[in-house]
User: What shape does this take?
Amino acid sequence: MAVTTGGIIKTVGITIAFGLISEVCYQSYLWWKKKYRTPIPKKKKQECEVLFFPDNRVACKSHFIGEGCGKLGCHFSHEPNSLSKLFEYLTKARKSLDVCVFVFTCSSLADILVEAHKKGVVVRVITDDEQVDVSNSQIWKLRKEGIIVRTDRSSFFMHHKFVVVDQAFLMNGSFNWTNQAITGNQENLMITYSTDLVQQYSQEFDKLWKQFNPQNFIS
Ligand SMILES: [Zn+2]
Assistant: This one.
């Protein structure tokens, strides 16, 4: 069959037309996809962890967050445990440490707050008024170092045990800051970076901080 010039032109024309229609359809699809398709949200990073107590031994603060422990036969734990992780979480603070704790008798944890305060971290502590003067209470040490501690002044308990660090993450659970809680009791301490939870606990802290302002108790 003879191939005519008209036939070639027709074939080329059809090919070009088909190509153009395909391109228009594809570009239309891309435009529609961009305009109407609901983007799949990127999975939000939700770091979380829970620390369970008791530990076998109290963690050695110098070993985990200090300049190292040089004590021969140190009777504190050099193996990572829940308390050593708590040390590490607390020392992440760069701006603020809002601590709400019912009983506070652990000197290592008090030292961490004092060290943070000296580095310029704004440390605020709320505790129960009836726990301020218990044996080994760390509250007066904190106050002596310039950390403001506020209390309820009620026969009911200020029973919270939570910390908001840098308004970035929250630690909350049953854990009091005592050696009994560290090496004796069954306790839990949950750490979450959930912005919703961090915000709610932060607001609650601010509310209590204002409520327990000593000026409110002047009669
Ligand atoms: Zn040690």
Q: What stands out?
A: The mean pLDDT is 92. Residues 1-40 form one domain. The beta strands are 48-53, 96-101, 122-127, 148-151, 161-165, 169-173, 187-192.
